[in-house]
Structure formats: structure tokens, C-alpha cells
Amino acid sequence: MFTILAKRELAKDINEYVIDAPLVAKNAKPGQFIILIVEEGGERVPFTICDMNKVLGTVTILVQTVGATTAKLAKLNAGDTIASFVGPLGNPTDLSGYKKVMLVGGGIGGAVIYPQAKLLHKAGIAPVTVMGARNKDLLIYENEMRTYSSRFYPMTDDGSYGDKGFVTNKVKKLLDTEDFDVILAVGPMPMMEAVTNVARDNPVKVIVSMNSVMVDGTGMCGCCRVTVGGETKYACVDGPEFDGKLIDFAEARTRASFYKEFETEEDCKIRGPRKK
Description:
Layout: E1 2-11, E2 14-20, H1 22-27, E3 33-37, E4 45-53, E5 58-64, H2 68-74, E6 81-82, E7 84-89, E8 101-106, H3 110-122, E9 128-133, H4 142-148, E10 151-156, E11 163-164, H5 167-177, E12 182-186, H6 189-198, E13 205-209, E14 225-228, E15 231-234, E16 241-243, H7 249-256, H8 260-271
Parallel strand pairs: 8-9, 8-12, 9-10, 10-11, 12-13
Antiparallel strand pairs: 1-2, 1-6, 2-5, 3-4, 3-7, 4-5, 13-16, 14-15
């Protein structure tokens, strides 16, 4: 069993958990993920590691309550335990060799680019960061990202904070006026695809993190298949990050929708029908 040491609500239905997991923390690097099981016999769900403390032996994850398992997790608090917490899994992010870096986060994608900003800042390469959300209240890790970025651009769909519009609006403006070596874009799949398309005719490299459906996290089940450059890859062992310009996003969107009907049914059992 793994103990939840701290829980913090960052926005509605978005919670940060600090988990006591010394062995995971010891080996974890930015860009990797864990797979947890809330209760014995429960669903295995992957979450990106958004911070780790190797001295205290803790791992921090960010969870948005969107389905059955995350709804169960949302009911737990500091002092409660979860059945399983396995990791680190996947490959760490490798931004070595890049001098001009743009980080783009959409929604809880900030949980993925946050540790990258810290690592880059430590290496003396403060990134340019663009973060978007539906409204001001849903922007996460803003203060932290401002600290570790050379420039920080908030975007909100409703214009309640920063510039109004999608992150792609700012990304396009930046690419039109500056040269970047790489963009790391993390967020909902439509957002990552849109950023990739905006940069498609630009020589900048685009890296995206594929938050695919996973079961075992070792490449055995094949659930997280993604086509990259015409080849089949597995997000859990070959990723989770890939060259966005080589990904078959149409196929990835289809695969991501396989379990939506089942997930909605289970979510209703736990939380009841959502209000319209």
C-alpha cells in the first residue's frame, strides 16, 4: 500500500497528490510516468510524474477527475492509501542539445511541462512557456512556471486572463517572429495535434506526450499503440513522447475513444448522472 501524504486542489476537479514512494522517487526523471491502482482489483491508470523528491522519497502527480477511477481517487485524502503505485515507466524527456525551447501546456498538460521547466532552468536554458486553459481558474502551476521560464504567456478560451484564444494563436505568433529549436507540447490530443500543424512548415522539432490508454505499461498488452512515421510504437515503452510531425493523429483519436461508453457508464455509477 502507498500512503497519500498530501492532497491539494489546484482547480475544480484537479487535485495534486504527494505519494510516499521512495523507490519510484529514487529513479524517477522528468517525462516518465507511473501506473496506479486505487483499490485491489481496480483499474490500472497512468499518470505523469510532475515532481519528485529523492530525499523525502515522494512523488507528485496531478489528477483530473474525468472518469471512474479518478472519481474514486478524488474521494481519498492525506493519510489514505492506494493499492499500487508502479514506476517510473516510459522514457525520460531528452531536451539536451536544444538551446531555444518552447514549452506548451494545455489543461493539466502543465503537470508534464512543469518538471521540464525546472530542469531546463537548472541547466541555464530558461524556456519560453505558453499555457492555456478554458478560464483563469483552470490555469495550474502558473507561479512555478513564471519562476522557471524566461517568458510566460497565459491563454484562456474566454479571455478571463492573459490573451484570449487557444495556445496555437500564441505559438504561431512566436514562430513567425522567432527561431526555436524545439517545442514540447502537452495537453489534450486535439491541442497537441493543432500545435503540431501550426509548426508543420517550420523547421522546429515538435515533441508531444501521448497519453494513451494503457494496461500493463510494459508493452505486452498493446493498448497504447500509436503509429509514428508509419511504424507501430508503444507509448509505454517507446514513449510517451514522440515526434509530433510523424504521428498519425487520426488513428490515435480513434483509439482514444474505444472505451468512452464504458467509462461514462462506470462514472455514472460512482458520481451519478452529470448535470447538464
